[in-house]
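Request: How about a record?
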Amino acid sequence: MTKINLLSADVYNRIAAGEVVDRPYSVVKELVENAVDAGATQIAVEIEGGGKRRVRVTDNGCGIAKDDLPRAFAPHATSKLKSADDLFAVSTLGFRGEAIASVAAVSRMCILSREEGEDAFSLACEGGVMGTVVPAAGAQGTVVTVDDLFFNVPARRKFLKSDTQEEADITAVMARFLLSRPHISFTYSADGKTKFCSFGDGLAAALAAVYGAGILENCMEICAEKHGIRLSGFLGKRNFYKPNRTWQSLFVNGRCVVNQTVGAAVANAYASYLMKRQYPFYVLFLEIPPEAVDVNVHPNKADVRFADNQVVYGCVYSIVSAVLDGNSRALEYLVGVREAGPREEISRADVPAETAPAAGAGEAPHAPCPDVRQMTYEAAKAQLKFDVTMPSAEPHLLEREAPRLEVRAPSAAERIQEDAFAENRRFLLEADTKAQRDRIDPDTLIYKGELFQTYLIYEAGDRAYLIDQHAAHERILFDRLKEKIGRRAVCSQPMLVPYVATFNAQEFVFMQKNAPLLREMGFEIDEFGENSMRVSAVPADLTELDPAAFFAEVLSSMESLRGIRLSELLQDRLATCACKAAVKGGKRLDAAEARALIGQMGGDMQLKCPHGRPAVVTLKKSDLEKMFKRIV
């Protein structure tokens, strides 16, 4: 009996759909790419129910002939490739011939199309079962409607995200299309509400349509060509950063990708200007000879492979770092500045920042070489050797290695005499005894003054205690807030002027989902217009909290939050807020305030701030006498 089965078309098409179409956003991506490849100058995208109920893409492209409509639904059918050699010079967004067949296998799909000077026809396909071509009414171009995605694959549909989350991911995809094709007019609406509308009038206008008009004043436009590679687009200024990478867009030969080589080059160029968990804003276009890049890496075409990563890394790094550092070469790269003269030193005003490093600082070191701006990619690859070591990933993507702990294995006799529960009880008892021993009655402490308006001095018996007023107050605020959060007793303090935070689509969905937890923590937060939220009150213990900094901290870890408990992360963020709200070093406390602080500490002389820094240092009288050689 044979054990190897030849799968039918409807089965293998559903399997293939998992590679190409895993979520509604991938349906939108594939259909819009087809519209772009068809030469459309106007594209409209409509979705309902987060794309699960309906996706409709309308374009004014070249259209599909009546006889080609059935072929459009066939697997591995494409108008963009004719032979295997074409794979080495792909210039279109789509080329695999899998998207339509994959989508049609797991949805109710209909294509209505009309070529110029011809009649319109439509063809429907339900779950991979094709209907017949029928006459229809329509303008030149194509209308593709996808209803009830995964209606026949309930296991797949069950794992889709909420309508709001799916819509946010589609919105992010559409934002990339507006940016990647700024000369195409896009209209995007969700459940009848317009989200994006561009008119095809250039990249600056597309940038404003996606991020708002205020984004342009925080960016620098660049256009550079080096070693046969062209890099153009917008770079955020050195003091303009975002809390996560959702504000970064890279297009390689017009295709939106996430690539580690380019990402690492840009991140390292910005490294000296940004603090931890801050990410640069950029919308960059990398144009490279098609034969030097492989776009056929994965069916979803989300990444590309370069023939020589080192050349690409070096070019991107040197261009971006030259612009950020403000050296003379930046004149050649900044749009609108090159007219000042090819060798004139660029003014620091052209590259705004808080500090102006020396020209060339942070630049990729390389051996002296002639002017190779007009060199081809292959010539650069053959003649130039970069000394830049390209990291395998961005430094902040690497997890910190956990410290190694040496654990002494108990002997056989110890295992017989003591069980784990007894050892744990002894440990807890010893810890409690030590804590009680290190805790003293605040009333027995004599206040002796302060040092440097930061350290409070107390005396008790033969010991002196130096208390860091900031670290101690920070711990008190943190513990108080944790306790109130635990018993849901947090009080809120209204803000004189509410704070309005604006997010991108993915950040907004995240904040919507976690708004109830923020309210439990004492924030009064509600939706306020498109992709915005208003904060009208903060926890009463943190009245000096900076809302902008707080939400930036929360959003900085948004990409990894889906696998951990948000409450734990927010407590960590609140520790930072407690640090900012605590009394600062350098602020003089009077005797009453100093006495109130030691009282709130409860006499705990082993107190540490939430970040682990000691709040109290104890000096014995004998230690001082040894310092002064009174005793040996």
Q: What stands out?
A: The CA atoms of residues 91 and 345 lie 39 Å apart.
